[in-house]
Each structure stands twice: as structure tokens, then as C-alpha cells.
Write a structure and sequence with these properties.
Pfam families: TerL_ATPase, TerL_nuclease. By secondary structure, the protein is α/β, with parallel strands linked by helices. The chain contains 18 helices and 17 strands. The chain has 2 domains: about 5-175, P-loop containing nucleotide triphosphate hydrolases (Rossmann fold); about 240-455, Nucleotidyltransferase, domain 5 (2-Layer Sandwich). The strands form 3 sheets. It has an 8-stranded mixed beta sheet with strand order 3-4-5-2-6-7-1-8, sandwiched between helices. Strands 9, 10, 11, 12, 13, 14 and 15 form a 7-stranded mixed beta sheet that branches. The protein has a two-stranded antiparallel sheet with strand order 16-17.
Length: about 475
């Protein structure tokens, strides 16, 4: 055993458990000579809390405290007899080279900034190869978003627990309510919170919170996350369930799409946020159209780590994997967007580019100068209702073949539907940081496919039918 991942809700004494585990490896039955025990938290304040818990435990016993030499200003405990140290550090203060860690405890990894989390975790894991029996323990509540180390660990924990992945060196310990559980069901609370039975997680407090949330639906997602330990990938009430999105048929290889007809949706950011370009390839299936999707996303390089933390998105890793293009400067590079569309046209038969009317003049002109047909596309119910309805049909029938692109998935996870009096839907987002650009670009491309199927408008040609024309 080399790694244990413990997922448990708030109010179940995680920090106390973490401190006890750290002390057991520092000066208890699991200690080794020259041990280096590291407690890592999201920031300096939480690192201080972790250290305080450990030191207070030691001070409770005279025999233990007599054996330990503290350096509180450095959040450090020394055990002279074994030459071991226990140190609390923060993930944000990245200067951890030279480690030789024997026991690593990562507290509340869901709160760590994505870029710093990966750097620290890699540094610690690399240092542990020098030890004969190293152990890492991750203890955390569920998080939100689909980017970052915490999401990867959550996903891996569930795959090991289900048997999808066999890894005897990894122990997943998960206290959580089932995904389909009613958040008001007290049986779900008990399933997720072992401390209720122990008497130090208050059942009455959970009841009070639940009664209040009945009147504040926006708080349901946080209740599910913090008290049922259910990961919140996007919106609390997403437009489509992610399990249905994930179940869509796999996309063919890019090589199989060469020469095929496609429509492209472009959702531009205003200045520095995410821009999405989504090529959609329609074909006929047994239950209607099938859509193969090739998305690409763009972000300016300046402040990339800050944006990753704000959006809870692993932009740094996605850049490395090629699903995100990072352009130089502080603002989105429109030239890079146009060049990407031009590159698509070299491999595929690009019929039309759908682009948001707002803030798109420069790109619109540049695309037309490249010889593309560009259709301005509104974001209101009149433009979006039909493509959103068709997208939902395609996803529910497994016919939206997205290739498991993680950034596109994040966008669809953040989508909620806004509905008008006629029950038409358009896309919106629940929170400011929720990026939905890829979903919007997909809908625009599908919208132009539908418009093409309907044939040209009478005003688009000089031909006129015989008889009267009512205007």
C-alpha cells in the first residue's frame, strides 16, 4: 500500500484524523528513523490549523511533549530520538525541492489551486522513491469542477473501488451518498457521515440546514457536496445529466472524418476568457442525425494559472494534452482562431461558420476574407430553441459523439436551461465562473445544419415562386 484516498464530508473530524495519522508516522508505531512527515494544506492559514492540531495532541500528554522539540514559527516538530521531523506546509508556497518524505498527508485537496497541487504532489511522490515504505494519505471532502488533481484522485478512487482499475497499491475509502439519493433523505445523511453515529456530527444541525435550503435552492449543490460528499461537476441542475452525456457513442478517429462535410460554431470571448471553435459533422442514423464533434479551445497565456483556479479547470494540463491552445499576450488572439478554422478547411469540407453577432466583427471579416461563408447567430430563444432541442435529442439518444473531450464536457456540465413561456430552451450558466462556450458553439453549428436542411430562405436568391408573395 502506497496511497490511501479518504473522501468524507465536512463535520466528520477530518483534521483530527489527519493529525493523528501524521503523529503515528512521526513518533508513533509507524515511525521510522529519519522520517520526514509532511502535512500539506491549501494555504498558510490551513497549514497552521493542521500544525496546531498535531502540536495540541502532543501537548495533551507529558511523556509525548517531553520527547518533541517544536519550532512553532516554522510549523515544525522535531523528534530528536529518531531524527524525525513533522512539518506543515501550504500548497501555494511552492518551494519544496530537497524533500525526502516518508509520510505525506494532503488535507482538503479539493481546495488546492490546480497548478500548485500538481507540482507539489509530483515533487513529494518523486521524493518518496528514496524510502522503503512510504505512504501518502489524501483526506478531503468532494470538490467541484472537472479539472485539477483532486478531480483526478476522485475519479481514480471510484474506478479502483468499482474494480474498473486494479491497483493494489491504492486504497480508496469513500463515504458518500449515492448519486441518485434525495438530498433530504436522512438515510443518505447517515450513509455519508459516519460521525453521526459517533455523536460528533450533529444530525439536528443537518436538519436545520435542510429545512432552510428548501427555501434557497441555490444552496442545494453545496449541501450535496459538503454533507453528502457528492462531487459537483458543474451546475446543480444541469441541462442534461452527465451520465447521459458520457454514454454517447465514441467518436471516429479524425482520419475517418477527412473530407467530410462539417459546420463550425465559433463562440468568442470578450477579452481574456475561453473561446470555443467546434466543428460538427452530421450523418444520418437510425434515430435521426448523428453528430461527430471536433472542438478546440483558446485562452490567452497571461494569467493562465489564475484562470485555472477561478474556473476550477485544469487549463495547464489541457494545454499540454492539446485540447487547449494558449496564445501569447493578455487578450484572445483572433488571428489564431481564424488560422484554426482555415486549417480545418484543409482537411474537411467546411460549409459554413456560425458566429455570435456580439463582439465578432473583426473575426467575421477575417473569415470572409479567407473565403468562408459566415452566418451571424443570435443567442436568444429565436435562434437557440431549435438547435438546443436537437442537441438534447442527440445526447439522449447517444448520437452526439464528442470523443470525451474534457473541456467540452466541462462546458456541458456548466449549462443550465433558461425556458420561455412556450417551453423553448436556451443555454445559460448558473455561476459567473462556469464556462459554457463549447456547448454554445456546438449549438450554433447544429443550428446552421438544421437551417441548411430546411433549404434557403426565399430572400437568399433571386428566384421567386409563381403567384403572390405575401410580405
Amino acid at each position: 500500500m502506497r496511497t490511501a484516498c479518504i473522501w468524507i464530508p465536512r463535520g466528520n473530524a477530518k483534521t483530527t484524523l489527519a493529525s493523528a495519522l501524521a503523529l503515528a508516522h512521526f513518533m508513533g508505531p509507524e515511525a521510522e528513523a529519519g522520517g520526514q512527515v509532511v502535512q500539506a494544506a491549501a494555504d498558510r492559514e490551513n497549514a497552521g490549523i493542521a500544525f496546531k492540531h498535531s502540536w495540541e495532541m502532543v501537548k495533551q500528554d507529558r511523556a509525548l511533549s517531553a520527547r518533541v522539540s517544536p519550532v512553532e514559527s516554522r510549523k515544525l516538530l522535531n523528534h530528536p530520538k529518531t531524527s524525525s521531523v513533522l512539518k506543515a506546509i501550504s500548497s501555494e508556497a511552492y518551494s519544496k525541492h530537497g524533500m525526502n518524505v516518508s509520510f505525506f498527508l494532503a488535507d482538503e485537496v479539493h481546495a488546492w489551486a490546480p497548478a500548485e497541487a500538481r507540482k507539489l504532489f509530483k515533487t513529494v511522490q518523486d521524493s518518496m522513491v528514496k524510502r522503503e515504505h512510504p505512504l501518502s494519505v489524501i483526506i478531503s471532502t468532494a470538490g467541484e469542477g472537472t479539472g485539477g488533481l483532486a478531480w483526478d484522485l476522485w475519479d481514480y478512487s471510484h474506478k479502483v473501488a468499482s474494480g474498473e482499475i486494479e491497483d493494489p497499491s491504492f486504497a480508496p475509502i469513500i463515504f458518500a451518498a449515492p448519486a441518485e439519493a434525495d438530498w433530504r433523505d436522512e438515510a443518505a445523511w447517515h450513509a455519508a457521515n459516519p460521525a453521526i453515529e459517533a455523536g460528533f456530527c450533529s444530525l439536528e444541525e443537518l436538519r436545520i440546514k435542510a429545512r432552510r435550503i428548501e427555501h434557497f435552492p441555490s444552496e442545494i449543490a453545496d449541501f450535496r457536496r459538503f454533507h453528502l460528499n457528492q462531487w459537483q461537476e458543474g451546475a446543480a441542475q444541469p441541462w442534461v445529466a452527465l451520465e447521459l452525456y458520457d454514454a454517447c457513442e465514441p467518436m471516429p478517429d479524425r482520419a475517418d472524418l477527412l473530407g467530410r462535410t462539417c459546420w463550425v460554431g465559433v463562440d468568442l470571448s470578450s477579452v481574456e476568457d475561453l473561446t470555443a471553435v467546434v466543428a460538427v459533422f452530421p450523418s444520418e442514423g437510425e434515430n435521426g442525425k448523428v453528430y461527430d464533434v471536433l472542438p478546440m479551445f483558446f485562452l490567452p497565456e497571461a494569467g493562465l494559472a489564475r484562470k485555472a483556479e477561478r474556473d476550477r479547470a485544469d487549463y495547464v494540463r489541457w494545454r499540454e494534452s492539446g485540447v487547449l491552445k494558449v496564445t501569447e499576450g493578455n487578450v484572445i488572439d483572433h488571428k489564431a482562431v481564424v488560422e484554426h478554422v482555415a486549417a480545418l478547411a484543409e482537411d474537411f469540407d467546411v460549409q459554413e461558420i456560425a458566429i455570435d453577432r456580439w463582439n465578432s466583427t473583426a473575426v467575421n471579416v477575417a473569415l470572409q476574407e479567407e473565403g468562408f461563408t459566415v452566418a451571424q447567430f443570435g443567442q436568444g430563444f429565436a435562434s437557440m430553441a431549435a438547435p438546443v432541442k436537437e442537441l438534447k435529442r442527440a445526447i439522449l439518444s447517444g448520437s452526439f459523439r464528442h470523443g470525451a473531450n474534457p473541456l467540452l464536457r466541462m462546458c456541458f456540465a456548466n449549462v443550465v436551461a433558461e425556458t420561455d413561456a412556450a417551453e423553448n430552451e436556451k443555454f445559460t450558466k448558473e455561476r459567473a465562473r462556469g464556462r459554457i462556450d463549447g456547448a454554445v458553439a456546438s449549438a450554433m453549428a447544429v443550428g446552421r445544419i438544421l437551417a441548411t436542411d430546411e433549404g434557403p430562405c426565399v430572400y437568399e436568391t433571386e428566384e421567386r415562386p409563381d403567384g403572390f408573395l405575401w410580405v
